[in-house]
């Protein structure tokens, strides 16, 4: 799917900042695509963007209303539909990352059809994919992988793309999850693809390209997470990465959602991800670490990163605290 921008970010009646994390991701990485935010009465979230009415946003050229808030159960609140219908009347498309579909809202779907507007349910791919082949493709690919879920793979990939582009490198972020798709404007939510076709979907997302072009691919889950390793394996095979960056959070007490399972050893994670990647790219390797040190003070973080870099002989960075330049230095 391709989502038209500029965006108006809809925060609805979000009770706190966390409820608007999807919109926050878009505002953080694509602020220049956003004309403002739309907040209903009682909204407790604020992205620091100008508050705009639908009419004001339309006058400034907004093309898509992004539903950037999630309520309990991931459902569309009845109070939101008035804004959605008005946005369609004013010439905007609508995009959402919620589990529930915009297209299942009868009034909204009917209005969009009447006016010829697009409704993007980014968690739900709208096309079919071929089975992956593993055939070598031109171009270069970097994949963010991790020791666990929800550990900063999207943030890392976006930070790498930003640094690479700042250096004039030919690089594009490739989104594989709903927030990433809203940030990129297109992509495939691979956890909604039938399992047999996930590697093919990623091959579609990262096709043959110019020899100097880098696809910077958003990773999902971890090969050592018992709940979600299946989608990770297909992603690794389909991405056919030349290099990988291992994402990690050193203070995490256990794997996400599995209180009785500790986070696996980094050395084991490197070994299993390299082995899987070499099925489709015999030269694939991990070249560095992206570490979330938010729970550490500066001195602790610096020591941890230095020790990790010394242990494995490759750069270890916190992309928030220090950026990702040492990793990009390796990409040439």
Automatic annotation (TrEMBL):
<dbReference type="InterPro" id="IPR035086">
    <property type="entry name" value="DgcN-like_C"/>
</dbReference>
<dbReference type="InterPro" id="IPR035402">
    <property type="entry name" value="DgcN-like_N"/>
</dbReference>
<feature type="domain" description="D-glutamate N-acetyltransferase-like N-terminal">
    <location>
        <begin position="42"/>
        <end position="125"/>
    </location>
</feature>
<feature type="domain" description="D-glutamate N-acetyltransferase-like C-terminal">
    <location>
        <begin position="131"/>
        <end position="328"/>
    </location>
</feature>
<dbReference type="Pfam" id="PF17396">
    <property type="entry name" value="DUF1611_N"/>
</dbReference>
<dbReference type="InterPro" id="IPR027417">
    <property type="entry name" value="P-loop_NTPase"/>
</dbReference>
<dbReference type="Pfam" id="PF07755">
    <property type="entry name" value="DUF1611"/>
</dbReference>
<dbReference type="InterPro" id="IPR011669">
    <property type="entry name" value="DgcN-like"/>
</dbReference>
<protein>
    <recommendedName>
        <fullName>EBNA-1 nuclear protein</fullName>
    </recommendedName>
</protein>
């Amino acid at each position: 799917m391709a989502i038209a921008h500029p965006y108006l970010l809809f925060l609805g009646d979000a009770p706190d900042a966390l409820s608007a994390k999807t919109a926050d991701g878009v505002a953080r990485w694509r602020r220049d695509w956003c004309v403002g935010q739309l907040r209903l009465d009682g909204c407790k979230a604020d992205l620091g963007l100008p508050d705009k009415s639908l009419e004001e946003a339309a006058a400034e050229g907004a093309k898509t209303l992004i539903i950037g808030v999630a309520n309990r159960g991931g459902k569309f609140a009845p109070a939101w539909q008035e804004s959605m219908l008005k946005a369609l009347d004013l010439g905007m498309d609508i995009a959402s990352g919620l589990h529930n579909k915009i297209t299942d809202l009868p009034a909204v779907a009917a209005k969009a059809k009447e006016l010829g507007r697009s409704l993007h349910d980014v968690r739900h791919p709208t096309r079919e994919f071929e089975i992956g082949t593993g055939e070598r493709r031109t171009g270069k690919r970097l994949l963010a992988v991790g020791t666990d879920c929800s550990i900063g793979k999207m943030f890392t990939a976006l930070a790498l793309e930003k640094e690479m582009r700042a250096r004039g490198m030919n690089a594009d972020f490739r989104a594989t999850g709903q927030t990433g798709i809203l940030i990129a404007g297109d992509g495939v939510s691979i956890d909604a693809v039938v399992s047999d076709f996930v590697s093919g979907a990623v091959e579609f997302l990262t096709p043959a390209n110019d020899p100097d072009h880098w696809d910077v691919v958003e990773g999902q889950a971890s090969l050592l997470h018992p709940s979600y390793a299946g989608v990770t394996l297909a992603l690794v095979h389909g991405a056919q990465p030349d290099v990988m960056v291992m994402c990690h959070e050193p203070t995490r007490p256990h794997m996400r959602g599995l209180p009785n399972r500790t986070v696996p050893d980094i050395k084991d994670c490197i070994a299993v991800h390299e082995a899987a990647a070499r099925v489709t790219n015999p030269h694939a390797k991990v070249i560095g670490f992206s570490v979330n040190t938010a729970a550490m003070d500066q001195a602790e973080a610096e020591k941890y990163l230095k020790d990790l870099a010394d242990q494995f002989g490759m750069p270890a960075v916190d992309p928030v605290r220090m950026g990702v330049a040492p990793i990009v230095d390796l990409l040439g």
